[in-house]
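Weekly modeling sync, notes
Attendees: AB, CL, MP (scribe)

Item 1: holo prediction request
CL wants a bound-state model with fe (ii) ion before deciding which constructs to order. AB pointed out that an apo prediction alone won't tell us much about the pocket. Agreed to run with the ligand included and paste results into these notes for async review.

Input as submitted:
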Amino acid sequence: MKTIICPPIYNEDYQEFNEDAYFASFFKASKLSAPMMDIAEKIVSELETGSGCVVLKNSYSGHNLNRAKSVLINVCRHIGWPVSQTPNPNFLEEITFKPSSNILSTSRGYRSRASIPLHTDRCDLNVLLCFAQAGNGGTTRIVNSVKLYDKIKENIPTSKHNIIDSYFPFSRHGETTEREKAFYLSKIFHSASSTSKFVAHYIRCFIENDNVKKDYPLNGPMIELLDAIDQHAKCTDVGFNLTLSKGDILFLNSHTTLHSREAYQDQKNERLLLRMWLSHPFSRPLPDDFSHAFKNIAPGSYRGGIWDNDKVRIFYQTQFLHAQHEDQLLHAQHRK
Ligand SMILES: [Fe+2]
């Protein structure tokens, strides 16, 4: 993991996010600055060719939530383009305990205080700003998937190596057309000669989904591999536990890291992280079997996220990529 100290750009004079504003307009109006351009280059380089994990410390230490949202938007503006995190487009999600009458949504997932198992997010970059930490617990575990892949390969018999590179069923989670099956086939690990080409994705509950199992039951060696992933991910030589401090912004490359969260307790529902998902111009090519989840697999394209339909996704692609043209001009001037 690389740690970078944020220069004192975002103080109490910094503009607040306007909840009533149209998000894409607010994002595009957020101004680029020379110090953050330099930092963004370092962040992207570490995410794409290094450890896949960066913490930007001391971004904002105040208590104004809308100012914190604006800080996160501005930092992300220097790196890439927001993609939606829910079918009804939402580009900035509050990760906190949200009581609900739906027992499932409060007993698990990011709106609960429960632990979240090891997984990758459906985006190129996952960005989390810590606004307030829990009273107790809530540590994030970050696992380098390149190291995990190598470790699993070292620890299982050579005769079983083919299972590491084999295809697994992943639930489409209801996003099917009439002729499609409830799942698509994809490898968990797409190994490569360099870190900048490696791609992994893993969400065990998508693979072991009941609807998927009916049509594509897993055999013994497949289940052994899933167990090996969960087991070896606990080793100190492939991952580490991270407790975010207030003002930290965590960046994770979803293709080369996996993450999980331990359960937490807080008295007054204080834990609050702000999350954005990004695609960006320097992303790696993705394998064909990512077409379902990411829609675009070309390097540097607007891709990933969760969308209700293609029309909405393409609309926002146009909105955010329009901002890129202006950014390129500014970057070019900055480099002169
Ligand atoms: Fe996640």
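Recorded for review: Residues 119, 121, 259 surround fe (ii) ion (CB under 6 Å).
Action items: CL to compare against the apo run; MP to circulate these notes.
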